[in-house]
Amino acid sequence: MSPPIYAIMLSSLATGAIITMTSYHWLMAWIGLEINTLAILPIISASHNPRSTEAATKYFLTQAAASATVLFSSMLSAWQTGTWDITQMSYVPSNALLSMALAMKLGLAPLHFWLPEVLQGSTLFTALIIVTWQKLAPMSLIYLTINNLNPTILLILGLLSSIIGGWGGLNQTQTRKIMAYSSIANLGWMATIASIMTNIMVMNLLIYLVVTMALFSFLIVSKSKTIQDTTMTWTLSPAMTIMMTFLLLSLGGLPPMTGFAPKWLILEELTTQNLIPMAVSMAIFSLLSLFFYTRLAYTTTLTLSPNTLQTKFKWRFKQTLSTPLMMTLSTMAIFLLPLTPLMLM
């Protein structure tokens, strides 16, 4: 893809999400979602191989179905209430439909099947866009409509996502699929807390974005597409292997990393709301996610791929990502736990 076209697609991607995030009219929100979807399709299929074409097709079909459901639910609401205002969606069937549509948009279980496949068919950079920027528009709609959405549906979606996000990632060897299931699990935590305390959800989203961007930037630089590839990261930069370990543990929610803060606050809030079985279940199933993060950290730092004395190491190509940006993101992803009270203000 030529640079001008690529720039147009990326700017359209940004525009679509911003339109959705700043609109209070359902039609404008839907238009933003459509621009967002149509802009990323050429980026996914730019590799010109059957896998990327398949990924683009799957992405298009699921996102089109979700967008159509969003439009249908908003039309139902407008028909019943006489308003297209996003925040005034009081018709119960519309809210249920909207919850499922946004779950499909985000890749929440049980509507998650497209996400690992699409990520596997994309490049690492495209996968980064899908699991970070593409989540902002649907999450903003959840934020705007949260007073009307059914909390039970969100809690069920969150619990299922936490279970499937952990379980699905256990037997994966591809880093993109692992990150897809990681995304499902993390979004499950956000869906769980969304109806209880939105500022924790927003904080969780921001921390998730920072940690995921930092980790993906390391995967892109080291060109690690499989777990076996991560065993050769040390040949590029020993410091990178250490940072990747910390990032993975942060994503798993281990203290004293930044990723511990949202899980801690969510479990505390669930307990406060007397949802103790839910809190216990979420904590237990997060151990599944932690297992595959730890496995990835182990292979990155403590193992070597099978090699001989004549093994050819990776060429140290010129980095395409800014080192200061990577270091800033990594530092934020690891050391922000003491600032938790400030982030909630």
Automatic annotation (TrEMBL):
GO terms for biological process: mitochondrial electron transport, NADH to ubiquinone. It is a multi-pass membrane protein. GO terms for molecular function: NADH dehydrogenase (ubiquinone) activity. Residues 290-344 form the NADH dehydrogenase subunit 2 C-terminal domain. Its EC number is 7.1.1.2. It catalyses: a ubiquinone + NADH + 5 H(+)(in) = a ubiquinol + NAD(+) + 4 H(+)(out). It is found in: Mitochondrion inner membrane. Residues 23-286 form the NADH:quinone oxidoreductase/Mrp antiporter transmembrane domain. The keyword Transmembrane applies. Its main location: mitochondrion. It comes from the Eukaryota. The keyword Cell inner membrane does not apply. Pfam families: NADH_dehy_S2_C, Proton_antipo_M. It is an enzyme of class 7 (translocase). The chain crosses the membrane at residues 59-79, 91-111, 123-146, 152-171, 178-196, 202-221, 233-255, 275-298, 319-339. Keywords: Electron transport, Membrane, Mitochondrion, Mitochondrion inner membrane, NAD, Respiratory chain, Translocase, Transmembrane, Transmembrane helix, Transport, Ubiquinone. One of its GO terms (cellular component) is mitochondrial inner membrane. InterPro entries: Complex_I_Subunit_2, NADH_DH_su2_C, NADH_UbQ_OxRdtase_chain2, ND/Mrp_TM. Core subunit of the mitochondrial membrane respiratory chain NADH dehydrogenase (Complex I) which catalyzes electron transfer from NADH through the respiratory chain, using ubiquinone as an electron acceptor. Essential for the catalytic activity and assembly of complex I. Belongs to the complex I subunit 2 family. PANTHER family: NADH-UBIQUINONE OXIDOREDUCTASE CHAIN 2. This is NADH-ubiquinone oxidoreductase chain 2. It comes from Anolis distichus (Bark anole). The lineage of its organism: Eukaryota, Metazoa, Chordata, Craniata, Vertebrata.
